[in-house]
Amino acid sequence: MRRTLFLAILLGGIAAQPLAAQSGANLAPRVDKLEKEMKAVQRKVFPGGAPGYFEPEIAPPAQTIDPAGSPASAPIDDLTARVSALETELSRLTEQSEQNAFKLRQLEDAATKYKAEVDGRLTALEGGAAPATPPAASTGSVKPPVARPTAAAPTLSTERAALLDAIQKPATGDAGEDAYLYGYRLWEAKFYPQAQAQLKDFVTKYPKHKRVSYAQNLLGRAYLDEGKPALASVAFYDNYQKLPKGERAPESLYYLGVSLTRLKKTADACKVFEEFDAVYGATALAGLKAQVARGKADAKCKA
Questions:
Q1: Contact yes or no for 154/181 (Cβ under 8 A)
Q2: What phi, psi does 18 have (nearest 5°)?
Q3: Is-contact 278 241, C-beta < 8 A?
Q4: What is the per-residue pLDDT across 9-68, written as a single tens digit (0 to 9) for each?
Q5: Could you report the per-residue pLDDT of 25-40, keeping only the tens digit for each?
Q6: What CA–CA distance (Å, rounded) separates 87 from 76?
Q7: Which of 145, 169, 226, 263 has most Cβ atoms within 10 angstroms of its Cβ?
Q8: pLDDT confidence band for 119 (50 / 70 / 90)
Q9: CA 231 – CA 195 distance, rounded (Å)
Q10: What is the chain's alpha carbon radius of gyration, rounded to the nearest angstrom?
Q11: SS3 string of the chain?
């Protein structure tokens, strides 16, 4: 009877604890502790009920005195504050993660779009297509071709390799001038892929050099002479658009018309020749004007 009454009092005391305090701790360790306390009390109250006498497994809790001026804080309050801080940090990290994921998707979409555009340009060029955007009419503006792929130089035979090695590299003391002249010698010897690589390298390394207009125009000539009018049209247009007052800009505009004629885009070629007349007609040399006239005849331009 005493035992039952004691258990009822003990359990009643447990049930009277605030629900918020119980929810703030881990239940499993607390249940284990209560079981140990219950067994210890049984041994203390009913020592004859067990084969031997056992010292209680619990002792009265030591009294602690809070330092002066330190406010008391219940364990559940501390836990609640810690949980709130963790929830705030988790929310911040989640938001940051979502922002990073959004930025990553934007970059992936941009990369996919760019790759598709480049693949389309390469496919058009390999199929012998003309530049996607033809030149405009004679309004002082020519729209650019868009195909810009590069091709690896073909493998040379032993004889051709020997001839290539025999081409002397200039040594004028001006590194830019030497680079351009070597590209010119490669083109003159009909090593067109090697000349293209050399001239492109020159334009990249020496964009402000006095020979840059020459080099860009000669790059187009190397493509045109190799039978690649689409790539040639890109090189010629770049020279005309970026350096309209360059020494070889008028020649580049003329050869742009020639390239379009070879691509069977005669209507666009005629627009380019009209552009030449509007921009350079009053200043071009007589020999170049004669070439433009023949270009118009080849494209069957209207007078």
A1: no
A2: -60, 140
A3: no
A4: 444 444 444 444 444 455 556 556 655 655 554 555 455 554 444 444 455 555 555 554
A5: 555 565 566 556 555 5
A6: 16
A7: 145
A8: low
A9: 14
A10: 44
A11: CHHHHHHHHHHHHHHCCCHHHHHCCCHHHHHHHHHHHHHHHHHHHCHHHCCCCCCCCCCCCCCCCCCCCCCCCCHHHHHHHHHHHHHHHHHHHHHHHHHHHHHHHHHHHHHHHHHHHHHHHHHHHHCCCCCCCCCCCCCCCCCCCCCCCCCCCCCCCHHHHHHHHHCCCCCCCCHHHHHHHHHHHHHHCCCHHHHHHHHHHHHHHCCCCCCHHHHHHHHHHHHHHCCCHHHHHHHHHHHHHHCCCCCCHHHHHHHHHHHHHHCCCHHHHHHHHHHHHHHHCCCCCHHHHHHHHHHHHHCCCCC
Cβ–Cβ < 8 Å for 80, 24: yes
Read off the tokens for 103. Answer: 């930025």
Structure tokens, 301: 């331009």
Cβ atoms of 140 and 270 closer than 8 Å: no
Cβ-contact 217, 195 below 8 angstroms: no
Q: Extract the tokens encoding 140.
A: 């002082």
